[in-house]
Specification:
Layout (H helix, E strand, L loop, with lengths): L19 E5 L4 H12 L3 E6 L2 H9 L5 E4 L5 H9 L5 E6 L14 H9 L2 H11 L3 E12 L12 H19 L3 E7 L5 H7 L3 H11 L8 H13 L6 E5 L9
Parallel strand pairs: 1-2, 1-4, 2-3, 4-5, 5-6, 6-7
Helix pairs in contact: 1-9, 3-5, 5-6
């Protein structure tokens, strides 16, 4: 007697079906990968960024609902963008901005001001602009880092910004409820931004991380995107900081 095994495929509904997701800084890297993943889960995606042509190319990959090119640190442009949205939205992710390294006493004071404008101040500006357009249970999700938790010479304002973001996230989450607010703290992520910062040292950094990280591989944009979409879907998650660095903060630099 023989038995036949019949394979079956389990189908599930997309978990962001009918929801709208805005990605600020969505033309490449983590933002673009999150947009792709949200689209697969059924979301309508709106992309913003500084470069209109890069946005156009990104949007063409998965039929984004719309794009808007502006500098997110420009308060007037940011407020106008949210004010002119035709309908309510569910989730807003901010990936704009990046770290700037250098000795604190050697760095131009205007650069240090920009560091805070691109992180804590941007969080506040997005929250103020977005909250009146968001549905209850929706979420603001911001990007922070884990690398600055271990201060050292040459990190500039990065440790101060890193320390500020979780507390700011918690305060915003309590004030904006039932809109949820969360923070993703990443270590090194293999993105075009990382490549531009490291230049010729990029491959050496990759090799070092593969050898030392507990996961024995480099964290990529898809790892962060998977987390971002998960916390959009799970409506019990708020007032929290989620690390995604492959264990980088616990190994020797």
């Amino acid at each position: 007697m023989s038995t036949a095994t019949v394979g079956s495929t389990i189908h599930r509904e997309p978990e962001l079906l009918g929801q709208t997701v805005i990605i600020i800084g969505g033309s490449s890297g983590i933002g673009l990968e999150t947009a792709r993943r949200a689209h697969v889960e059924g979301a309508k995606v709106i992309l913003t960024g500084r470069d209109a042509e890069r946005l156009r190319r990104a949007a063409s990959e998965f039929e984004a609902v719309s794009t808007s090119a502006f500098d997110a640190t420009d308060t007037v442009s940011l407020e106008r963008f949210f004010r002119e949205l035709p309908a309510a939205v569910d989730h807003v992710m901010v990936t704009a901005g990046g770290p700037h390294y250098g000795r604190l006493l050697d760095t131009d004071i205007e650069q240090e001001r920009r560091d805070f404008a691109e992180h804590p101040m941007l969080m506040l500006q997005v929250a103020r602009s977005a909250v009146h357009k968001m549905r209850a249970g929706g979420m603001l999700v911001f990007m922070g880092g884990t690398g600055g938790r271990r201060p050292s010479i040459g990190l500039g304002t990065f440790p101060a910004v890193t320390a500020a973001l979780p507390a700011l996230t918690a305060s915003l989450a309590l004030e904006l409820a039932p809109v949820r607010v969360n923070l993703i703290a990443a270590g090194f992520v293999d993105t075009p931004l990382s490549a531009s910062i490291l230049g010729d040292e990029l491959e050496n950094r990759r090799k070092q991380l593969r050898a030392t990280l507990p996961i024995r591989r480099v964290v990529g944009p898809a790892d962060v995107a998977a987390l971002a979409v998960h916390i959009m879907i799970n409506t019990a998650l708020t007032v929290a900081t989620y690390d995604v660095d492959g264990g980088e903060q616990f190994v020797a630099a």
